[in-house]
Please model this.
Amino acid sequence: MRYAFAKRVRHLQSSAVRDILKVVSKGNVISFAGGLPDDDLFPLDGVREAFEKTFETGKKPLQYIETEGYMPLREILVDRMAIKGIDTYTPESLLLTTGSQQAIDLFSRVMFNPGDVILTENPTYLAALQVFESYEANVIPVESDEFGMIEEDLEHKIRKYKPKCIYVVPTFSNPAGKVWSMERRNLLVSLAHKYHVMIFEDDPYGDLQFHSNETYTPIAALDDGTHVLYTSTFSKTVVPALRTGWIAGPHQIIRIMSQAKQANDLHSNSLSQQALFHLCQNFDLDAHINNLITVYRSRMEIMLEELEKAKLPGLTYVVPKGGMFFWIELDEKMNTGDLLNVAVKNGVAYVPGAPFYVGKKVQQNAMRLNFTHSTPDKIKKGMGILTSVIKEQYTKV
Ligand code: PMP
Model:
């Protein structure tokens, strides 16, 4: 039987990251590939107690709820966002989703006709690209440097392409691990207002900030509630398995997204939402996040030390100020896609940079390294293997 799929599925591809994870999970490979938090740091007791608390009220938590999600959790999230300066949204303009991934999907579903333009950083989050492409949006990359999108190219492309939206991960980005400067954040908001373009701010990593003395105001906090949609998630700070994220934004957009959600899954896992409400009430989430920061920062420093020690030819990187990823660029003649097989055979995995790029400017010499999922010993061992493999390959190309 030849199955007659819809045209749009020709854009669907398995993610390069998931494919690597599948290979790696079978063998005895040290993996810097996935964007995984450390299992050992999961707040197991906190989550267990939160579910116990959920069931104290009997069977009620097992019923269908409203599409927008469990109201008491939405209220808590509005309060938590206000602490970061995002104070223009009400619980009514906040939708709980099955991870922030679903927020990206629902937004795209209600916004993009085939061919509509979305501007992104380059490189950018791979699974967002998959969503945009699945709705046949036209993704156009904007030149970026270490501080964010570059003003001239951004304004030029807004004028030229009249995009519907600009998608950004401005705080400890995936994959590049960088942080936008305040100047670039303000600039983005002012251009969005000037040209009437929506900004989609994806912020799963913002809480994992390594230097408490620095301030990275969310882009949503610089707006008046009209031009920015802000999404975040419990995946990186609590556990990914609860599949709970949220999106806040202008009420009209959230309302339409909520209608699209009814067609998609009615509402996300409300048991998770209720448990997360109890977790936020009874467990010291901020102390837990501080602990994650301490551990992850020290792992990043170990990875940095190993990188510096290895003195790789032509190496460039920006030291991550938070989040989960190191983005490194090797000498221009290196191809990290080709190198991956050799690395995996030797016992270490990473994600090559190429799949994160949009358009023609693809850097074959880049790679993304996750530093949160491996223990310090594994980071040292894995980086030892990886840097030797890189050096050996360098002499051959
Ligand atoms: N956005 C970015 C930038 C991410 O890195 C991730 C997780 N890899 C997500 C969204 C989705 O996270 P979740 O669906 O688990 O909330």
Q: What stands out?
A: The longest strand covers residues 228-233.
